[in-house]
Amino acid sequence: DIQMTQSPSSLSASVGDRVTIACRASQGISNYLAWFQQKPGKAPKSLIYAASTLQTGVPSKFSGSGSGTDFTLTISSLQPEDFATYYCQQYYTYPLTFGGGTKVEIK
Amino acid sequence: EVQLVESGGGLVQPGGSLRLSCAASGFTFSSYWMSWVRQGPGKGLEWVANIKQDGSEKYYVDSVKGRFTISRDNAKNSLYLQMNSLRAEDTAVYYCASYRKSSDFDYWGHGTLVTVSS
Fold it and tell me: Which residues 6+ apart lie within 8 Å of A56 measured at CB?
C-alpha cells in the first residue's frame, strides 16, 4: 500500500498568513494527488485534484504543486473560514490512501 | 444541485449487520464510479470501497474484504454498502462520494454514523 505522510500534523497561523502543507507518498504516484478540507462535524470538501487543478468553485487562494512523491498545498492568505483540517490523498492505485491530516488553527 | 444523502446508520452489536444506502441526485449517477469513505471518531479519513459505473468492478480496503459488499442500482440512483460481521473498529461516520479517475472524489454526502458496540 502507498503511505501518505503529511507535515506538519498541526500548525498555528494568523489571518493573512501564507500557509504551506507538505504531503509525501511512499512511492511515485505521478500527479494522482488530491487535497481535501474538512471542518468539524462536516463532510470533507474536495479542493484540488491532479496535484494542482482546483475543483469547480474553489477560490484561487488555494494552490497545489508537486509530482512523483512530494506535494504541497498552499493557502496564499489565510482567512477565518480556512481554519480546518486538510488531507492529501493518492488515487494512483488501490487501495486509495489518505494522509493523516494537518489541522490549521488560529494563532 | 448535486446531492448525496446517506442513510441506514445506527447502533449494532459486534458481529451484526447493517446496510447503508446513498441516494444521489443532481448529476448523472450512472456515469460515475461511486465510493464509500469512513472516518472513525477523532480519526482521519479512510477509503472503504469503490464500484464501477455498471457494477462490474469493485475494490475494497483489506480490512473490510469478505465482510462488506458495495453495490448500486442505477435505475434508482442509489449506492449501497452491506456490512456484515461488524467489529468495534468499524465504528465511524460513513460517507458516500462520487469518483472519477480523472478528478478523484467530486461530491460528498453528509455521512451516516455507524456505532458497533454491545
Answer: none
Q: Are A77 and A48 in contact (CB under 8 A)?
A: no
Q: Tell which residue, B45, B60, B50, has the closest CA to residue B92.
A: B45
Residue B103 has pLDDT above 90, yes or no: no
For residue A90, the SS3 value is: strand
pLDDT mean by block of 10 residues, chain A; 107 residues: 98 96 98 97 96 96 98 96 97 98 94
Q: What is the pLDDT of residue B9?
A: 97
- A interface with B, Cβ–Cβ below 8 Å: 32, 34, 36, 38, 42-46, 49-50, 53, 55, 87, 89, 91, 94-101
Q: Which residue has the cell 481554519?
A: A83
Closest in B62, B102, B104 to A95, CB measured: B62
All cell numbers assigned to A9: 500534523
Contact of A105 with A14, CB cutoff 8 Å: no
Per the CB < 8 A criterion, the answer to whether A66 and A22 are in contact is: no
Q: Per residue in B24-69, pLDDT tens?
A: 999 999 999 999 999 999 999 999 999 999 999 999 999 999 999 9
The residue length of chain A stands at: 107
Neighboring chain B residues of A38 at a CB cutoff of 8 Å: 45
Q: Given CB atoms, is B57 within the 8 Å cutoff of chain A?
A: no
pLDDT for B101 equals 87
